[in-house]
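Much of the work behind modern protein science is quiet bookkeeping, done one molecule at a time. The protein below has been through that process, and both of its lines are reproduced in full.


***
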Amino acid sequence: MKLYCCRRCGFAFFNPGLTGNEAFYRQMEHAEYYTPNRPEFPRTLEFAGKKGRRRILDVGCGSGSFLDLAKQAGYETCGIELNGQAAAKARAGGHVVFEQLLHELNLTQTGEAFDLITLFQVLEHLSDPVGVLKQASALLKPGGFISIAVPSVEGIYRLIPFDPHQWPPHHVSRWRRKDFAQLARATDLKLVECGGDILLGSGIGHAWKLHNSLAPVMGRRGYPGGEMLPRIISFVYRKTGLKFIFPRWGYSLYAHFQKT
């Protein structure tokens, strides 16, 4: 499986034809797939609060974990989710959920435009992330925001090169922080803020263990030290405050864009 790289900007991607379809994602329906607690959830609500945004559309909302938090904070919540079972769970939480693609929505259906549209862990699944952000922008109020989060190729995933979640048909692109500026130019949006998640000590141990379980399957050697060495490294990392020296080596990157 070949990973391509743009000669002009360096963005890395796989053949878009390998993108997973609806049947693929239906097979992945389980409780652990839709993570209820992600760093981008409270961070984005804090950002929305500072900007005075009240009406939110969460693209790929899953069973509604982020929308639940937003509703509790007083936001008007809508979502898009193609997985029928997950969409039903989100509706049970009191949210308006559309089971259709973003470009199929119009303001007649939604009632009005949105202040904030979120795409958490979505763009890496898509064959045309630029086109999808343009579609989202069309549903924004003037001055509205788009907030995204994507897996970081610059972070802890470097320790897990064989993680199947980072390969097609699940993920079809690899993201760096510098890619956000190019994404803003391609979509006529303003990049307001971007950064990365903090790497926690527990993440080091998890990545080490996962790699050692996957490497033999690929005919490669795992990392040395058994289970003890990653525990020691994780302990030292936590106790010495290294997360403040390497503050953005976590699992994901985030960015906020504005419709100007």
Observations:
- The chain has nine helices and ten strands.
- The beta strands are 4-5, 12-13, 55-59, 76-80, 96-98, 114-120, 140-151, 173-174, 190-196, 252-258.
- The radius of gyration is 19 Å.
- The mean pLDDT is 92.
